[in-house]
Amino acid sequence: MTTSNVGSANIGVVGLAVMGSNLARNLASREGNTVAVYNRSYERTDLLITEHPEAGFIASETIDEFVASLAKPRTAIIMVQAGKGTDAVISQLAERFEPGDIIVDGGNALFTDTIRREKEVSAKGINFVGAGISGGEEGALKGPSIMPGGSAEAYKTLGPILASIAAIAEGEPCVTHVGTDGAGHFVKMIHNGIEYADMQLIAEAYDILRQAGGYSPAEIAEIFTEWNKGDLESFLIEITAEVLKQVDAKTGKPFVDVVLDQAGSKGTGVWTVQTALNLGTPVSGIAEAVFARSLSSQSAQRAAVSGLPADATEWSIADKAAFVEDVRRALYASKLVAYSQGFDAIRAGAAEYGWKIDLGAVSKIWRGGCIIRAQFLNRIADAYAAKPDLESLIFDPYFKDAVAKSVKSWRNVVANASLAGIPAPAFASSLSYYDGLRSPRLPAALVQGQRDFFGAHTYKRVDRDGTFHTLWSGDRSEVEQEPSTH
Ligand code: 6PG
C-alpha cells in the first residue's frame, strides 16, 4: 500500500474467500465506495486485485497497513469462518481501532457470541456490529439481504454503505437496522431456520408427488415452475425446479436420483430450534426439518431397520390435477406456519433480549437478496403494516382466508401420506400446530393432572382463581396452595 492510500478507504473487508471477495467487489462497484482489502494469506488478496483491477482495491499485506488505509471512523467487515477465526480478527482490529470506529462481523455467528463480543469491544468505545448477510456467493456479489445489529451510532455510518450493496425489493434496499447487539445475527438465525423448513416442505411435496403421484423429476420440475407463477413464487421453488430438471452427465439418470439422501447442515437451523426451545416458542416445522436432516444421516440405523413393515395403503388418485392442487395448498399452508412461527420466535427473542425489532421491516428486507426471498413476504409485510402487534401471522385476514381455502387439502395430503407410508414430518407437524392453535380445549389439562399426581406440581382450574393440588395418595381431596418449586 502506498502512503497516498493512507486513510483513503471508507470501507474495508477482512477475509477474501468467495463470500468476502464477492462482497468486496460489490462494495467497490458502488458509487462513492473506496474499498480496502486484507486476507491473512496475501495470495488471496493478490488473486482478487489481479482478477479485478477495475475495482480499484486498496490492498494491504499486513493488518497494520489495512487499518492505516481506512478513513475514520474506520469501518471493517469481517468475512471469515464463524468461531475462533472471527475472534482472532476482532482482537487484531480492536487492538488497532480507536473509539468511534466500527467492526462488523458479516459471518453466521451465534447471536449470543455477538452479544458477548459487542460488550467486550464496545467497552473500548469501538462499535461492534453483528450483521447477517443472506444470499450466498451470488447474493454477496449482486445484492444480499443484510441484517445488521449493533448501535444506532454505528448504523449512521454503516447503513448507507450497506444500502449501496443490498438487493432492492419494491424500490427499497433489503437492509435495516434490526436492533442492538446480537439482534442482527438472531434474525439471520431465524431466517436460516425458516430456510430449513421451507426446503424440507418443498422436499416433502416433491416426495409425495413422486411416490404417490408417480411423476418423474422432470415432470415435478414443470409442476414447481407452474407453482412459481402463483402464491408460492420464491427463490427456493425456482431453484428446486432447476435441480429437478438436472440430468446426471455420467449416468444419464435424473440428478436427484444419484445424490446420496443424507442432508448436511452447518448448524444454523439447530441454533434456531435450541433457541426457540429456550424461549418457549414452538417452531414445529423448523424442528422437523432439522430432525429430518439428522434422520437422513443415520445411515447405520436406517440400514439396520430398513424393510420395517409399512402396512401402507395405495393412495388412490382419481383426479391428478386435484391431487397436485392439494399438495400445492398443503405446501402453502405449512409454509405459512413455518414463517408464522419464525416471526413469533423473533418477537420472543426481542422480548427476552430487550430488542425493539420491527417485524414489518424484517419481512421487507427478506423480499429480496436472501435465500427465503419470495412474493409471500410482500403479504407478510402488508400484514405487519396493517397490524404491527399481530398476535400471529395466521390471524391476518389474508392468511386466515388462504388457510381456510387450504385446510381440507392439507388434511387430505397429511392423512393420505400417512396411510401411504410416505414420511411428511414438516407437513404433519405444521397441521398439528394449526389444530393445536385453534382447539378450544387441549389435552394439556390431562398433562397437568399427571404432573400433579406424580410430582405435586399443582394445577389451575377453569372455574376458579388459585393454585391447587389433589391429595392423590390420601383421600384425593383438593387443597389450595402455592405452586411447587421443585
Ligand atoms: C444464506 C444461507 C447461508 C447458509 C447456507 C448453509 O442465508 O445465504 O442461509 O447463510 O450458511 O445456506 O446452510 P446449512 O448448511 O445450514 O444448510
What does this structure look like?
With 486 residues, the chain is α/β, with parallel strands linked by helices. It has 20 helices and eleven strands. The strands form three sheets. The chain has a seven-stranded mixed beta sheet with strand order 3-2-1-4-5-6-7, with helices on both faces. It has a two-stranded antiparallel sheet with strand order 8-9. Helix 8 (183-211) crosses helix 12, helix 13 packs antiparallel against helix 19 (425-438) and helix 15 (320-353) packs across helix 19. The chain starts with 10 loop residues before the first strand and ends in a 6-residue tail after the last strand. The mean pLDDT is 96. The structure holds 6-phosphogluconic acid.
Concise structural overview:
The chain has 486 residues and is an alpha/beta fold. Helix content is 54%, strand content 8%. The longest helix is centred in the C-terminal third of the chain and has 34 residues, at 320-353.
The portion of residues assigned to helices is: 40-55%
| Structural class determined from secondary elements | alpha/beta
Rounded to an integer in angstroms, the radius of gyration calculated over CA atoms is 26 Å
Shape: globular
Ligand kinds: 6-phosphogluconic acid
Our measurement of the CA-to-CA distance between the termini, rounded to an integer number of angstroms, reads 65 Å
Count of extended strands: 11
Strand order of the largest sheet: 3-2-1-4-5-6-7
Q: Sketch the major β-sheet.
A: 7 strands, mixed
